[in-house]
Amino acid sequence: MAKLYSEQKSLNEMQPQEETVKFLLNYSKALSVINYKKMKFEALLN
Amino acid sequence: MQDQLIPDATLVSSYIKGQESALETLIVRHKQKVYSFIYSKVYDKDVAEDIFQDTFIKVINTLKRGAYNEEGKFLPWVMRISHNLVIDYFRKNNRMPKFDNAGEFSIFSVLSDTSLNAEKSIIKEQVESDVRRLVEELPDDQKEVLLMRIYKDMSFKEISDKTGVSINTALGRMRYALINLRKIIEKHNIVLTN
């Protein structure tokens, strides 16, 4: 059997990039949902 | 360590109440599972990253709108969102399949660049200049007919009118011109192919 020398990351070690997580946190901070009567308005304030 | 002790449900309700740090804890806690799940379906890091991001954007939107009602089942809910987004991704890709050129049929066998590469264009120039030098070696009457026929694309009728000889003479001169060219080429072993 040929041996594979390339390092294979196991699926469990896979993680999203730090930037993606940061983006999500910033997105969450910027998003505000305004309730007006029965309507909901989403506002992204950067 | 303390983060591990707080249940997802508590973090979710803290987040809904406005505690942004609770979301960070939730994402950090589950990012590996969610991302690995997506990657195991799409096998593309960039696509997995995009779907991961879209998943949590949906999570954030839903939580902020107060539309979340699955108490204590945060992770299965997130997984279901990501699963749906993976399905959307494959649906979209099936409708617009990408051409990856990995199959047996190569598009480049049909779409080829017909212009000569550098080496071939140099060879072509050399061959052409060799031919011109060979033509110069021909007797004047043969050379004249050959130039008119080949380079000026004139008919033998036109050649005979222009040179004042009969068509048969022009044909004969053309014939001798070609015979003589072949002789010189054979004698000097000149290769005139590209």
Radius of gyration of chain A: 21 Å
Q: Tell me the overall shape of chain A.
A: rod-shaped
* Uncertain stretches of chain A: none
**H/E series of chain B, N to C?**
HHHHHHHHH
Family (chain B): Belongs to the sigma-70 factor family. ECF subfamily.
Protein name (chain B): RNA polymerase subunit sigma-24
Domain RNA polymerase sigma-70 region (chain B): 26-95
Pfam families (chain B): Sigma70_r2 (PF04542), Sigma70_r4_2 (PF08281)
Top keywords for this entry?
heterodimer, A: alpha+beta, B: 194 residues, Rna Polymerase Sigma Factor, Chain: A, Arc Repressor Mutant, subunit A, rod-shaped, transcription (chain B), sigma factor activity (chain B), RNA polymerase subunit sigma-24 (chain B), transcription regulation (chain B), DNA binding (chain B)
Describe the model.
Chain B: Keywords: Sigma factor, Transcription, Transcription regulation. Chain B: Belongs to the sigma-70 factor family. ECF subfamily. The complex is a heterodimer of chains A (about 45) and B (about 190). Chain A has one helix at about 20-30; strands at about 30-35, 40-45. A two-stranded antiparallel ribbon of chain A has the order 1-2. Chain A has 1 helix and 2 strands; from the N terminus they run H-E-E. Chain B has 2 domains: about 1-95, RNA polymerase sigma factor, region 2, helix turn helix motif (Rna Polymerase Sigma Factor, Chain: A); about 120-185, Winged helix-like DNA-binding domain superfamily/Winged helix DNA-binding domain (Arc Repressor Mutant, subunit A, Orthogonal Bundle). In chain B, helix 3 (about 20-40) packs across helix 5 (about 75-95). The longest helix of chain B has 23 residues, at about 20-40. The model of chain B has no long low-confidence stretch (mean pLDDT about 85). The interface of A and B includes residues 12, 27, 31 and 42 of A.
